[in-house]
Amino acid sequence: MRGGKLIVFSAPSGSGKTTIVRHLLEQEKLNLAFSVSATSREPRGEEKDGEDYYFISAAKFKKHIKDGDFLEWEEVYRDNFYGTLHSEVNRLWAHGKNVIFDIDVVGGLRIKKKYPEKTLAVFVEPPSVDELKIRLKKRKTESDEKINMRIAKASIEMATASQFDHIIVNDNLDKALEEAERLVAQHIDKEENESKAREEE
Predict the structure, then answer these.
(1) pLDDT per residue over 121-131, tens digit each?
(2) 199 pLDDT exceeds 60?
(3) CB-CB contact of 185 with 39 (8 Å)
(4) Domain ranges across the chain
(5) Of the candidates 9, 88, 121, 159, which lies 20 to 30 Å from 165 by C-alpha distance?
(6) Looking at residue 26, what is its pLDDT?
(7) Domain 6-200, what fold?
């Protein structure tokens, strides 16, 4: 499948979007490459620089903002920035890839707004906020205070779901993976068929 498309997966933390994105990246026929976001936060657990995120200082992040280097960015918490560098997307497009994002809700909608025709925006919804809290606690990577902050943020994020092209309710992982694969394949096929039609005109 020809490259140049954008696929956005957004969700409250703990909804399972990362699991879905990893599954999609394994499907060779989709020709996907992962867009590595930049962040000013410290690495967590086994995270690797340049693979999970580009870990940069808050000062350097602010300079990139000033220089207009981001496709989208957000200050999620005070001095805790996340963003997508233009150079990252251009690098992957140059390799003929379709670019997939595992990204915050605000960032996902900004990408959709910037590239409405190229972008498929999917919102992954947890079965409930209570289930989300259980999943976050099971991770054992954050304090109760941080988890409560994430839960409060999740309620706000879930209110934006209707602004996305599709909503996948992740109450059954196998079904969610199947639905995600189908939606992405349809988006890529649709774009390819339209470009073929234009070439034939």
Answers:
(1) 999 998 777 77
(2) no
(3) no
(4) 6-200
(5) 88
(6) 97
(7) Rossmann fold (3.40.50)
